[in-house]
Design brief:
Helix content is 19%, strand content 33%. With 123 residues, it is of the alpha+beta class. A five-stranded mixed beta sheet has the order 1-2-5-3-4, covered by helices on one side. The protein starts with 8 loop residues before the first strand and ends in a 9-residue tail after the last strand. The relative contact order is 0.28.
Length: 123
């Protein structure tokens, strides 16, 4: 459950769930793909990509007015950045939840886990 990374991107494993946080927000969804991809390539030493269905939750927390960003573009960029590290292909994502909500700081949290019969994430 120890966090990996010390920059804008950090990650940890909690049971079968991988949680990735990205500090700060920008309105450019394309900014996140190389940022997270480079983190995964250089620093991630956790679980290897798995076959089977996965569930993905992406939460964008903002302070003040929400940024003008299409959540579908954000989801695609983030799924592309973790593809090959947490699952082999984004076609394995059987459930995707993307949410924007007010928070105490600006950040994005990605949670990924193998799909099971219950809707709650394991770990």
């Amino acid at each position: 459950m120890t966090w990996i990374g010390s920059g804008k991107v950090r990650a940890r494993e909690v049971g079968a769930t991988v949680e990735i946080t990205i500090d700060g927000l920008t309105t450019q969804a394309k900014y996140y793909k190389p940022l997270v991809y480079e983190f995964m390539r250089k620093e991630w030493r956790g679980a290897r990509p798995a076959w089977g269905d996965h569930e993905v939750e992406i939460v964008m927390e903002h302070v003040g007015d929400p940024p003008w960003m299409d959540l579908d573009n954000l989801a695609k960029a983030l799924q592309d950045s973790i593809k090959g590290y947490l699952f082999h292909d984004d076609s394995q994502v059987a459930r995707l939840v993307v949410e924007r909500r007010p928070g105490d700081r600006e950040r994005i949290t990605i949670r990924v886990w193998p799909r099971q019969t219950s809707a709650a994430p394991p770990g």
